[in-house]
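FAQ: What does a ligand-bound record look like?

Like this one, built around calcium ion:
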Amino acid sequence: MDSESQLTSSPKLILCVEDEKRILENNRKVFSDSGFNVLTAENLKEARAHLADYEPDAIVLDIMLPDGLGLDLLRELREGGSKIPVIMLTAWGEPDDIARGLDAGANDYLSKPFEYSVLLSRVKAMFRNVEQLPEILNLGGLQLKLMSREALIAGEPLGLSPKEYDLLQFFVQNRDRSMSAAYVYEAVWGQPMTGDAQALRSAVSRLRKKLQGSGYTITSEYGGGYRFERG
Ligand code: CA
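The answer part, i.e. the structure of the complex:
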């Protein structure tokens, strides 16, 4: 299996639990329009029935439901060892609900009324946080060991500094993509570039030398950007 196929996955299944029909329908639509599979439940009983039959990849959980509290379902899940990412939907101005929900193991929350696009972004962010990267990325002769943060060509360590490794991993994960210097700097250094491109230029230059023989290179793009690609 190549690294490309390790990074793609089948459609994720979202369970939306909500008793307000209009919100439930909008939740369902925003996820299904984005290619997710969706289960809906209007109360705890229906939610539990779905959970007996399916293993959703995430739950969008309303707190106040006709037959009880979403928090109770959340506690049951966590007590049963489930790590399904859960985002709670709380009524506006209920800080106690938010605190109780996070204490009970919710990964995130949104207060009603909310923008459906924000709900979608938050759920995608939860997936990014829980998704396990493969331990090793193989790109032909170039190999990245993500746990030990090592890069090797044909089994030989490249001897990268920690920052060079961070930069290389970022390039590998964004390969074949044109990126501005400022974008790369901000992602790898964790702060705005503020005009000092020298650190990035130096690191790229060192990486280029160390990548010789790997089958990959960092191409300079018109306007000062970079692209990591075969070459
Ligand atoms: Ca409700």
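Follow-up question: can I read anything off the structure? Yes, for example: The chain has two domains: 4-132, 136-230.
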